[in-house]
């Protein structure tokens, strides 16, 4: 995600835990999946007891009524014997639930959909959950970076995006980055409208005044990287030089971004030269005309606001490696995504624009405020995940590069991207990886830059060639 410093106010839905479920910190009762996936910042997000492997979401949306009707099918494996389990779903009304094609009892309160199958699910068994639901999706009810959910324009156009929450606003999901799954979308919209999502585009069909769009992402990804955008898009299709299919979607009023979008192959080739081969099976962008305060790295097809620039595209495409392929485990690990993507902008400026990064670093350190230094980059606390990762995060990565040397730094990034390709990772794992590759004890450096809340000591602030 790329953040605009001047945030607009956004709306956030209140979440409530199903009283039938135990607290996320408590040991779940036998046969009951935990009410949360284990992230201490968002203890009721996601659910325990199963591992989702795929989602197939079919929706019908009418821009005039602004109502959504959906049927979602999750395939999962039970990691324990399950008498009941939960999915995350906000505000929408559930009409029917089936587990393995058999009617199931359910209760829906707050953001928790509690499901009791007709018979317990055996540990290790594969099962399917089909949920029929509908209503008017909402958006978040308090301000925060990434907190949008379901954004509706006056025209009836809609965009589903947000971080850490977005998917549960429009389909039932195990909403945690700890449980990535493949994703398929079938979207029915009135003729003249277009539904865009992630993954590869399938066959489009029309009939009875409606058009059906199909999208499929076969790579397992966290649910916040899925999206649905419905507008009167101008669609452009092409390919990267590597052969990966590209779909760009331009909302009315965003047509002037086509020249910028045409530079994508250049960006991907550069990032591939630094981080290894492009890890996704599709590419492109969704260019909006509504002034949201962030861009989001929706998988293989980032979503952009009108203020998008080339550096923002570099940032969001760096996420296709760091965030979308190397997946975070907890939201406290967000520096794995944002610090590295922010520094990718610096690398682009150095290689393609001739920027002197040492000079840039020293200048930014000189003007840095106490607020910048007070932001922790790891284990920063709920609600502070994005406070420092864009500015202090880039400075920290340049200091790390100076500490270990250019060749070692490049090796660190390429080996990390390869080692953790399409896998979850934690920030402490990255620290151990850096120490292994560099052969250096960097505990003091990491404590000063990533856990500290004050300006780093001189030896960490100006390491290696940055030394004054």
Describe this protein's structure.
This protein is an alpha+beta fold and 468 residues long. It has three domains: 7-232, tricorn interacting facor f3 domain (Immunoglobulin-like); 235-308, Zincin-like (2-Layer Sandwich); 326-466, Neutral Protease, domain 2, CATH 1.10.390.10. 24% of the residues lie in helices and 28% in strands. It is built from eleven helices and 24 strands. The chain has helices at 258-261, 264-275, 310-318, 335-353, 357-367, 370-374, 392-404, 406-419, 427-438, 443-451, 458-461, and strands spanning 2-3, 50-62, 67-78, 85-88, 93-99, 102-103, 105-109, 112-116, 126-135, 149-152, 158-161, 181-190, 194-196, 200-201, 205-207, 210-221, 228-231, 234-239, 245-250, 283-287, 294-295, 303-304, 326-328, 423-425. The strands form six sheets. Strands 2, 3, 5, 6, 9, 12, 14, 15 and 16 form a nine-stranded mixed beta sheet that branches. A four-stranded antiparallel beta sheet has the order 10-11-17-13, with no helix packed on it. Strand 10 (149-152) and strand 11 (158-161) form a beta hairpin. Helix 3 (310-318) crosses helix 4 (335-353), helix 7 packs across helix 8 and helix 8 crosses helix 9. The chain is globular and about 70 Å long. The two termini are 34 Å apart.
């Amino acid at each position: 995600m790329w953040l605009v410093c001047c945030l607009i106010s956004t709306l956030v839905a209140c979440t409530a835990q199903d009283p039938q479920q135990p607290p996320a910190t408590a040991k779940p009762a036998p046969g009951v999946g935990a009410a949360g996936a284990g992230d201490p910042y968002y203890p009721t997000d996601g659910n325990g007891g199963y591992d989702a492997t795929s989602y197939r979401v079919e929706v019908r949306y009418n821009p005039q009524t602004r109502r959504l009707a959906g049927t979602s099918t999750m395939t999962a494996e039970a990691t324990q014997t399950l008498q009941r389990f939960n999915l995350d779903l906000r505000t929408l009304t559930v009409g029917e639930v089936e587990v393995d094609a058999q009617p199931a009892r359910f209760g829906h309160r707050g953001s928790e959909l509690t499901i009791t199958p007709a018979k317990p699910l055996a540990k290790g068994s594969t099962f399917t959950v089909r949920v029929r639901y509908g209503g008017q999706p909402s958006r978040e009810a308090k301000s925060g970076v990434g907190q949008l959910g379901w954004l509706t324009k006056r025209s009836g156009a809609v965009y589903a995006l947000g971080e850490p929450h977005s998917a549960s606003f429009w389909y039932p999901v195990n909403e945690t980055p700890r449980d990535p799954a493949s994703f398929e979308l079938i979207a029915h919209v009135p003729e003249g409208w277009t539904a865009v999502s992630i993954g590869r585009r399938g066959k489009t069909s029309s009939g009875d005044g409606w058009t059906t769009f199909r999208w499929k992402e076969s790579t397992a990804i966290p649910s916040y990287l899925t999206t649905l955008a419905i507008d009167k898009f101008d669609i452009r299709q092409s390919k990267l030089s590597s052969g990966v299919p590209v779909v760009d979607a331009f909302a009315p009023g965003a047509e002037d971004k086509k020249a910028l979008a045409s530079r994508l192959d250049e960006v991907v080739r550069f990032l591939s030269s630094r981080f290894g081969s492009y890890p996704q099976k599709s590419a492109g962008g969704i260019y909006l005309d509504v002034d949201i305060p962030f861009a989001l790295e929706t998988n293989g097809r980032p979503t952009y606001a009108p203020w998008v620039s080339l550096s923002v595209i570099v940032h969001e495409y760096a996420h296709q490696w760091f965030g979308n392929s190397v997946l975070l485990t907890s939201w406290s690990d967000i520096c794995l995504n944002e610090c590295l993507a922010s520094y990718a902008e610096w690398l682009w400026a150095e290689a393609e624009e001739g920027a002197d990064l040492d000079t840039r670093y020293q200048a930014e350190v000189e003007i840095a405020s106490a607020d910048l230094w007070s932001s922790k980059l790891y284990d920063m606390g709920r609600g502070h995940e994005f406070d420092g990762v864009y500015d202090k995060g880039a400075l920290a990565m340049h200091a790390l590069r100076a500490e270990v040397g250019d060749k070692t730094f490049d090796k660190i990034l390429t080996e990390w991207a390869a080692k953790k390709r399409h896998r979850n990772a934690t920030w402490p794992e990255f620290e151990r990886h850096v120490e292994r590759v560099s052969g250096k004890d960097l505990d003091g450096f990491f404590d000063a830059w990533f856990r500290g809340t004050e300006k780093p000591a001189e030896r960490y602030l100006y390491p290696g060639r940055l030394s004054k």
